[in-house]
Amino acid sequence: MKIKTISAIMAIVILTSIQTMAQKTLAKATKGKFLFGVAVNMQQVNGVNPVETELITKEFSAIVGENCMKPQPIHPKEDQYKWDDADKLVAFGEKNKLAVTGHCLLWHSQIGRWMFVDADGKDVSPEVLKERMRQHISTVVGHYKGRVRGWDVVNEAFEDNGSYRNSKFYQILGKDFIKYAFQYAHEADPNAELYYNDYNVENPTKCDAIVEMVKELKAAGCRIDAVGSQAHMHMKTPTLEATETSFKKLKDAGVHILITEWDISILPSPYEGANISANFKYSKEMDPYREGVPDSIQQKWNKRVLDLFGLFLKYNDVVDRVTIWGLTDNTTWLNNFPVRGRKDYPMLFDRNNKRKPVVDEMIKLANNCKTKKKLSNNK
Ligand code: XIL
User: Fold this and answer.
1) Which residues pair with 35 in a beta bridge?
2) Phi, psi angle pair for 62, to nearest 5°
3) In angstroms, what is the span from residue 236 Cα to ligand 1's centroid?
4) What is the mean pLDDT of residues 343-366?
5) Could you give the C-alpha distances from 374 to 260, 320, 370, in angstroms and in order?
6) CB of 54 within 8 A of CB of 327?
7) What letter does residue 122 receive in the DSSP assignment?
8) Which atom of ligand 1 is nearest to the CA of 39?
9) Is 261 designated active site?
10) How far is ligand 1, taken at its centre, from the CA of residue 345, in Å?
11) Whole-angstrom Cα distance, residue 7 to residue 11?
12) Element holding 369 (H helix, E strand)
């Protein structure tokens, strides 16, 4: 009896000390497994709402600019670069010891039309486009050389059916524009990691096309460290199985995985892609939670977060970073996409900048998960 009591007391003491050792923020709990990042807007970088800024510096280990490094904002005209915002972002990251990644060098959206046309408005030749791409990439990557950990070199080059998106880059240069972009980025900063980034990577056909592209890039001698899966998700899609299958395929192709823009919309959606030009008409049925989310739905959302986060942890041998696309339900882009003016709840922090209870569960999962040895991505 005595021995039993003593062992019970000892067990309690050990459990309590393990709990006090357990980390209290996602950044700390995921340390050694992957970076835990957040996309930030300029108000947050500028400290307009100090509470938000403090959350970013306390809860995360990485940041990415939600808009400031995209082609249009940073290079609005051929002879004009605007560095102010992106410079502040990088300085903010350095000051707060947050890893900074660059999003994104080439994309069909948020890019000046000047890139593709001559003075008469006609499409430029392949040679002129290549030279403009080289100028853009080497100037931007060169400007932040040694300070940005890695770049989304090309964003969204595929359609969901696995064919190449018929972007201006593709029309003028064919699929080789991707190879050139990776070459120019590597020349500008040989130490920077280089990524390909897209949405609906869990779609099997699209995933296969991306894997094929990765193989071609490697065969051509290009550096590619990881594929970024944007992971703009919904309550039912993509399934956990489809997500895991995509991880397996990418891992087999010898690239690492980044979850680059994670959010889980709680609202019904007329569209499951993330092409930012999509825009659907507002209706009340599509905006059911203006007064709050019913508990039963909230529980389902929480489960979805934990199932997916558990999967990211399971693959921490190849998942290098998990970044959420925005900080709070107030600032998420999903309040206006793909329908304007709705009230969505896709983030880990609520409209009062409070951490949602599910975050404690995520921290527990991360604390209980073993750090795996990172697999090489030079396969
Ligand atoms: C979004 C931003 O969140 C919005 O503020 C902006 O108006 C449009 O772009 N895929 C991407 C991101 O790669 O850059 C997009 O970000 C969301 C979809």
Assistant:
1) 321
2) -150, 155
3) 22
4) 98
5) 18, 9, 12
6) no
7) P
8) 3
9) yes
10) 17
11) 6
12) none
Q: What is the pLDDT of residues 286-308, one digit of tens each?
A: 999 999 999 999 999 999 999 99
- Nearest-CA residue for ligand 1 atom 16 is 66
The string over 144-167, giving b where at least 16 C-beta atoms fall within 10 Å of a residue's C-beta and e elsewhere, is: beeebbbbbbbbbbbbbeeebeeb
Tokens at residue 255, please? Answer: 């690239």
As a whole number of angstroms, the distance between CA 212 and CA 358 comes to: 37
Mutate to test the pocket of ligand 1, among 69, 111, 276 (most ligand atoms within 8 A of CB): 276
Ligand 1 atom at minimal distance to the Cα of residue 260:
13
pLDDT the model gives residue 20: 47
Structure confidence at residue 178 (pLDDT) = 99
What are the CA-CA distances from residue 342 to residues 76, 124, 290, 334 (Å)?
Answer: 30, 40, 8, 8
- Tell me the two tokens of residue 221: 């001698």
On the question of pLDDT at 331 being above 60, the answer is: yes
CA of 230 from ligand 1 middle (Å) equals 10
Task: Report how far apart, in Å, the C-alpha atoms of 232 and of each of 21, 200, 241, 269, 272 are.
Answer: 33, 8, 16, 12, 8
> Whose alpha carbon is nearest atom 9 of ligand 1?
276
Ligand 1 pocket, residue 274 CB under 6 Å = yes
Can 127 be counted among the known catalytic residues? no
Q: Are 83 and 142 in contact (CB under 8 A)?
A: no
Q: Which among 52, 59, 66, 156 is annotated as catalytic?
A: 156
pTM given for the model: 0.94
Distance 65 CA to ligand 1 centre (A): 10
Q: pLDDT tens digits, residue range 186-203?
A: 999 999 999 999 999 999
Task: State the average pLDDT over residues 347-360.
Answer: 98
pLDDT class for 23, splitting at 50, 70, 90? Answer: confident
Helices within 256-357 (DSSP H only):
295-314
Q: Among candidates 82, 215, 96, which has minimal Cα distance to 139?
A: 82
